[in-house]
Specification:
The strands form two sheets. Strands 2, 4, 5, 6, 9, 10 and 11 form a seven-stranded mixed sheet that branches. Strands 1-3-8-7 form a four-stranded antiparallel sheet, with no helix packed on it. A hairpin with a 3-residue loop joins strand 5 and strand 6. The chain is mostly beta strands and 123 residues long. It is built from no helices and eleven strands.
Length: 123
């Protein structure tokens, strides 16, 4: 398994959209999880959405109305589609991976983290 690598961050006006990408190579087995987290300045890191291979997608509360996670299996890429962005979505977005997550966002169970990509939403 390789360290995930994020891309696609940037600055966007409120109401706009962004699509983040996570290149995640080596996660092919049932139960492997690739999950998006975010951390805003001065706040704790929080889960956004994840994919458990063979077991579907999962979202943090209030995240699934504007955020959608998807997977491009041949390219080993996990996408996070973010619509109707708000200034409070401003954060560094991280992609993390683990062998088993049980659809949970417990940070301690994720052993491989990407360096993050910055998303800034201005009003």
């Amino acid at each position: 398994r390789e360290q995930p690598v994020e891309s696609g961050g940037g600055s966007v006006q409120a109401g706009g959209s962004l699509k983040l990408s996570c290149k995640a190579t080596g996660y092919y087995f049932s139960g492997d999880c690739i999950t998006w987290f975010r951390q805003a300045p001065g706040k704790s890191r929080e889960g956004v959405a994840g994919i458990a291979i063979g077991d579907g997608e999962f979202y943090a509360d209030s995240m699934n109305d504007r955020f959608t996670i998807s997977r491009d299996r041949p390219r080993n890429v996990i996408y996070l589609h973010m619509d109707n962005l708000k200034p409070e979505d401003t954060a560094t977005y991280y992609c993390a991976a683990t062998k088993f997550c049980n659809h949970e966002f417990r940070i301690s169970q994720y052993d491989l983290w990407g360096p993050g990509t910055q998303v800034t939403v201005f009003s």
